[in-house]
């Protein structure tokens, strides 16, 4: 069974390594082991990109995927809190039935969810120092526009995966939105009648859509 080993730090600073892992995940057509053993840190972008790659693999009819949990118990606990294991090894029914923890866990959205948007606005207003109700409302509007843009233009059969996380130490909220669309480059190629390049050269770019 092939194994894809995740980077030690699955964060935005290591985005190139994460995208390379995502491309490796999507290339597999049979059973796959995802090894998170060496991981020492995840952030919303890293966790969401990897979860999307697994979702795309599943949507293509491939898998299943086994997850080797991180050796670091703090990282393993974080992944359980955001329901990451369910997005790697669970079914869509199990994900929908998972208990909610406010905006902590990842969500797969196939349409706009006003309750989720309000949860994000309330998290910003209640946790981030200096965020007024007016500012949190404006951010809610921006998030609404971002998600609506995904639903209208990304042509993603998976919708999008989102993850909102409150960071106590930095006193801020980090939000990741990742869709499974074809990406701007391939969309332009299609509009101009240009043949798509082989997936091996565009896999990473598509994950940034």
Walkthrough of the structure:
The strands form three sheets. Strands 1-3-5 form a three-stranded parallel beta sheet. Residues 198-209 have low confidence and may be disordered. It has one domain (3-207). The chain is built from nine helices and eight strands. The chain starts with a strand and ends with a helix. Helices cover 49% and strands 16% of the residues.
Low-confidence stretches: 198-209
Helix content: 40-55%
Number of helices: 9
CA distance, first residue to last residue: 29 Å
- Characterize the largest beta sheet: strand count, sense, and whether it forms a barrel: 3 strands, parallel
Q: Name the average pLDDT.
A: 85
Percentage of residues in strands: 15-25%
Radius of gyration over alpha carbons?
17 Å
Order of helices and strands: EEHEEHEHHHEHHEEHH
Number of β-strand runs: 8
Task: Count up the domains.
Answer: 1
Question: Looking at the structure, what is the overall shape?
Answer: globular
Physical arrangement of strands within the biggest beta sheet: 1-3-5
What structural class results from the helix and strand content? alpha/beta
